[in-house]
């Protein structure tokens, strides 16, 4: 399969310029110890880096509790999503691919069963699908990266089984039927349908930014993704540290990814760094953003490291970012320059300078797609009109290869009080 996949993707990219691929396949019998991946995932990771393409892979499906205790599909939800047997299947654990889990599009009960006491829903809209697989992926990184709609399941007490599409059409998504001569449309459920849903959102961004790298598209997706409130509420019974293993960064908002608006400004940059180097980006903060209600800064980073499954550490480079405020730029440069070569642990500045982004550093630094934010409601004028974003590239085993690591960075400033940020910041980008 890996060699066939390589040949197919290379051929489609060379002959037709294909930049987006969807792999709604998985090998549930391929068992690797946690943090390791197989040759299939490695091949896709290599292709994503070599060809600068987007490869979306479904996280995989598994019936609740493996289908052995159907009642527990309702009573033990969502705890069973974190079972070891429910880990993402090969090749969904890869580093440079985009892994997609599934959200329920609805509770799955249509009008014909609305008042049937023996039909019981497992989910409501925007809650994790009961069949979606969860992370972690290679090297302990967060998987899935994102979620999208993939259908759901319901419990039928009379039949003592979990019903899903196509047997129960309302539990699935409408799609074309492979047997189209008999029936043009059908209903299906699975992460196999969530993956192309997200790929479609990415295709809209590629149309909007035709020259964008795969890293930039991934960073834009990440910067627009949020976890639905329904999903957050349903996962409250689980350890908060495990939530991202179910939903990743969240559900993508394509319009938010593609455009700024009056009170929300999106910056982006594509760049590269030598290994064991850092870059500092100036982030202008207008006076209107320093007072007057809730304000949010969000930062997203995407990069495509070299990979080797024969190494103890799968990826050859690591990148991370820190948002610094109230600190002279010369001091920022000197602080990080003096710590070049100190290993993979990022240096920490004094708390008064280092913005406390969420998710925390330890939760995001292993990932090749990272997104974090900080919100303010108090006055922040004491920090001045300029923040600095430090991006650091740490070389692992790739230090021997003398490469530069490509990456993309997206930053969003949003003022929830509808302050006209865009008009204030756009002229400053031209200077």
From TrEMBL:
Pfam families cross-referenced by the UniProt entry: Peptidase_S8
Biological process terms in GO annotation: proteolysis
Domain Peptidase S8/S53 stretches: 6-226
Domain of life: Bacteria
Entries under InterPro entries matching the protein: Peptidase_S8/S53_dom, Peptidase_S8/S53_dom_sf
Molecular-function annotations in GO: serine-type endopeptidase activity
Protein name per UniProt: Peptidase S8/S53 domain-containing protein
């Amino acid at each position: 399969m890996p060699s066939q996949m390589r040949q197919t993707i290379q051929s489609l990219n060379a002959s037709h310029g294909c930049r987006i691929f969807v792999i709604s396949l998985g090998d549930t019998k391929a068992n690797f110890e946690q943090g390791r991946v197989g040759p299939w995932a490695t091949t896709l990771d290599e292709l994503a880096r070599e060809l600068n393409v987007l490869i979306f892979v479904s996280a995989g499906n598994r019936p609740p509790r493996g289908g052995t205790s159907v009642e527990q599909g309702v009573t033990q939800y969502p705890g069973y999503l974190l079972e070891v047997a429910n880990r993402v299947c090969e090749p969904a654990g890869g580093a440079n691919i985009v892994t997609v889990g599934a959200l329920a599009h609805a509770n799955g009960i249509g009008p014909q069963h609305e008042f049937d006491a023996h039909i019981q829903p497992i989910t409501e809209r925007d809650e994790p699908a009961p069949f979606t697989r969860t992370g972690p992926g290679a090297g302990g990184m967060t998987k899935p990266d994102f979620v999208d709609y993939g259908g759901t399941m319901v419990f039928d007490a009379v039949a003592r089984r979990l019903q899903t599409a196509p047997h129960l059409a309302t539990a699935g998504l409408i799609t074309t039927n492979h047997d189209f001569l008999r029936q043009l449309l059908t209903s299906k459920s699975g992460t196999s349908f969530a993956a192309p849903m997200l790929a479609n959102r990415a295709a809209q961004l590629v149309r909007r930014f035709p020259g964008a790298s795969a890293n930039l598209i991934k960073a834009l997706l990440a910067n627009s993704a949020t976890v639905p409130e329904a999903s957050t509420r349903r996962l409250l019974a689980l350890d908060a540290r495990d939530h991202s293993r179910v939903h990743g960064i969240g559900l993508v908002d394509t319009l938010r990814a593609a455009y700024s608006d009056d009170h929300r400004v999106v910056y982006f940059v594509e760049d590269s760094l030598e290994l064991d180097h850092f870059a500092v980006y100036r982030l202008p903060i207008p006076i209107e953003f320093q007072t007057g209600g809730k304000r949010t800064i969000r930062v997203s980073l995407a990069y495509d490291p070299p990979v080797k499954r024969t190494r103890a550490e799968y990826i050859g480079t690591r990148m991370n970012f820190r948002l610094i405020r109230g600190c002279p730029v010369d001091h920022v440069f000197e602080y990080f320059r003096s710590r070049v070569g100190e290993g993979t642990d990022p240096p920490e500045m004094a708390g008064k300078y280092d913005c406390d982004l969420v998710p925390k550093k330890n939760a995001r630094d292993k990932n090749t797609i990272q997104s974090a934010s900080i919100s303010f409601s108090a006055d922040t004028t004491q920090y001045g009109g300029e923040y600095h974003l430090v991006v650091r590239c740490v070389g692992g085993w790739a230090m021997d290869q003398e490469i530069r690591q490509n990456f993309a960075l997206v930053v969003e400033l949003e003022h929830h009080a509808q302050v006209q940020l865009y008009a204030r910041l756009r002229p400053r980008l031209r200077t």
